[in-house]
Each structure stands twice: as C-alpha cells, then as structure tokens.
Amino acid sequence: xxxxAWSARFSEPVSDLVKRYTASVDFDQRMAVHDxxxxxxxxxxxxxCGILSADDLKAIQSGxxxxxxxxxxxxxxWSIDLEDVHLNVEKRLVExxxxxxxxxxxxxxxxxxxxxxxxxxxREQIDLIVEQLIALRRVLAEQASEHTDTIMxxxxxxxxxxxxxxxxxxLAYAEMFERDTERMLDCRKRVNRLPLGAAALAGTSFxxxxxxVARTLGFDGICRNSLDAVSDRDFAIEFCAASALVMTHISxxxxxxxxxxxxKVGFITLADRFCTGSSIMPQKKNPDVPELARGKSGRxxxxxxxxxxxxxxxxxxxNKDNQEDKEGLFDTADTVRDTLTIFVxxxxxxxxxxxxxxDAARQGFATATDLADYLVKKGLPFRDAHEVVAHAVLTCxxxxxxxxxxxLEDLKGFHPSIESDVYQVLTLEGSVNARDHLGGTAPAQxxxxxxxxIERAK
Length: 458
Ligand code: ARG
Prior knowledge:
Elements: H1 16-22, H2 25-28, H3 32-48, H4 54-72, H5 85-97, H6 99-103, H7 110-146, E1 151-156, E2 159-165, H8 166-191, E3 193-194, H9 210-216, E4 221-222, H10 226-231, H11 234-261, E5 268-269, H12 288-311, H13 326-348, E6 351-352, H14 354-361, H15 368-377, H16 382-399, H17 408-414, H18 422-426, H19 428-434, H20 443-456
Parallel strand pairs: 3-4
Antiparallel strand pairs: 1-2, 5-6
Helix pairs in contact: 3-4, 3-7, 3-9, 4-5, 7-8, 7-13, 7-20, 8-11, 8-20, 11-12, 11-13, 12-13, 15-16
This protein binds arginine.
Residues 24, 28, 84, 110-111, 114, 320, 322-323 line the site of arginine.
C-alpha cells in the first residue's frame, strides 16, 4: 500500500474497498487540463505576491507543462492510491521538479481547487452547448422559412383543432430553444466566479491576490465568501436544470417526429441515417434517434434531481458528498451536446410530405372556428355562433363530408346570414391567412418570424 498524501497521522491504511469507494480519479481525471490551468494561475499569483520564488514558479510551470503533455499522450499512470485528479497531478509534478512542486499547494486546498476545476470545465461545456442551441435554432428557422405556407393540422389534445403552417410549428420549437440559450447564458454568469483563495473553508493566512487569479483564468469575479465558495454546487444544479429543460423540449420534438413518421400519419420522413431496421420485420424503419432522445431526457432530469438531493441539508462548508456531483454533471453535458449535434443534422434532413399534412388538416373540421368567427362578424354573439357551427359539424359527420362540402343552401339552413363569401373562410388558406397578427400562423407572419429568428441565430 502506497501512502496517501494525508496518511502521516493515520495508524492503519484504508482497505482496498474503501480506497475504491472514496477515489474519484477514474472520472475526475477528465478535468485534468482545467486542474493544471488553475494550478498555473495560482502559482503565478503566489510568485507575484512574493509567496513563491521565481525559480520555484519556473520549475512548477515547466513541470506542469510536462504533466499536461504526458496526460495528452495518455502516458500518465493514474493511480487510485492518489484518490483524485488533483493529487495525481501534484504527485507527478513533485516527481518531476521536487520541492518546488511541493510548494504549489501553499494557500490552497483541494476544496477550492475542485470547485475551480468544475467551474472551468463547465464554462467550456456551456459555451459548446450554446453554440449548438444556436445552430439548431438556425436549422429550425431556415426550415420554417421554406414552409411558411405548408398547411398542417394544429392539434390540442392530439385532436385536430385548427389549421396551422408547418413553419409556424417549427418556430414554436425555435422559441423554446431560444429561451434555453438564454438560460444557459444566464447560468454561465454564476458559473464564472472564482472559488480559489477560499482554501479549505476559511481562507488562508498568506497574502494572496484572488482578483489576479480570477483575471488570469477569465472569471468575471471571485466568490465573495470562502465558506460558500467551497461548498455550494448551485451553479451545477442550475446548469442541470437548464439542461433538463433543453432535453424536455427535445423530448417534445422527438415525440412529434415519431408520431409524424408513423405511416398512419406520414407527415415526414427522417433520413435513413437516423433510423434503424428490425432484425425480424424486414419492412421496418424505426425512428430510433428521436425515441432515444426522448428516453435520454429522463436520464438528464434524473441527474438534476440527484444533484438537488446531494446538496440538500449539507451543513457548511465542504463535505465529501460533493465528490458525487461529477458523474451526473459530466453525463448531463455529454448527453445534451450529443443530442443537439445529432438534432442539428437530423432536422436539416427532414423530408416534408406537404400533401399528407394538407389531407390531415382537411379532416376533423379544422375550419369550424373560422365559421363561428364569420358568424360573429355578421353580428351573432360568439356563444350562439359556436352552437350554430356545432350543428353544422354534426350534419357533416352524419353525411361524411367536410364543412366546405356543404351547399350554400345547407349552410343558410343553419343560419340565414351565411353568404357565398363563407367558402373563402372555410378553406385552409383562408383560415391561416386570417390569423395575420404578431405571433399568428398566417404565412406572411411566419415568413417575418422566420426571418427574425434566423437573424437572432447568427
Ligand atoms: N475529490 C474531491 C471532490 O471531488 C476533491 C476535494 C476533496 N477534499 C477533501 N478534503 N477530501 O470533491
């Protein structure tokens, strides 16, 4: 048993199981680059403040450069005897440069070190995710601008409600992902604060310059309270919450893609590269990617709940519980990034079956509300108009026809104020064109909205 960094005061070594149980190096080695980044900034500040000699700083800088090289070349031997990424990197540094390496940890604790590493890592992930969210919004808005007058049924309760344009439908998702972008950027502000200098919990007796380290590492500022700096993970929880919403929106879109892809609906076809076949049914082409994305939304929400439970009731300041924050956080970012990358490509390659959409909109009396609105414009109170149209729909149902199939005579039978101009209102085009205001589904509005959305996704 190799001795742990802290083992001098212990009378017996930990068992192999406890060693494995308490070690995090298998997963936190992922933050090695950020750990080194943080150490370099810390060492530079120590030297600047006269806490470390210029020679020691040089030794640390060249030593860490070599450790980084070894890590990137896959040559560093990670050891669970050294618990986590921090102690592994430090141990290798000491092997390379001796006493200077042992001075690196002056005025620092793994508690403020790990909090810094996570923030540096997460900041990068947020930037990648924001880029992908913007790319997805652009694809959706560009598709929308090609389908400003492609008519489909709009649903409530998954029952045909009123005709909408496919472009309008896509832009609804662009809106959701735009809010997700805002949430990520807002969360980034609170991620981008420096914990270093808090040391274990109370700060340090050395004359450090935290603002300097913050500037070096590109943080917007420091965490103001040392106890808070090392112990809270609310910034990670916020990121997971924003991610859970991204995946929730993805799951809604996925559900629709799966539905639209069903031969019973047939609104779209996904490119073959996002589908798989069946090992028994030769005819099958299954929309696996959106189905999996729908499933993965549950996994990401699970990570959010796990982190909330991890944080709940933790007394100040650092507790080892917090080591459990990483795997779920890493998996959240990985899942969101992969999902968005795939969706950008997949949404770009959707084949739209405009005729099927149109045919579906012609079923289910999608323009019934338009007929009611028509009667209101002729002077009927809306509630009376609603009833008149209900009777017309019942008749159509019995005859197996649609509202525009009724003769003017039939229609006048329901209400004498109905004239031949009613047919314009009962068409799908008449219906969508009539909703010509900000946020409405009229092709002219959708064209404007798509253009603005593309502009905002630049
Ligand atoms: N591996 C630990 C973590 O992820 C680093 C901090 C440990 N600090 C300590 N005193 N045990 O949280």
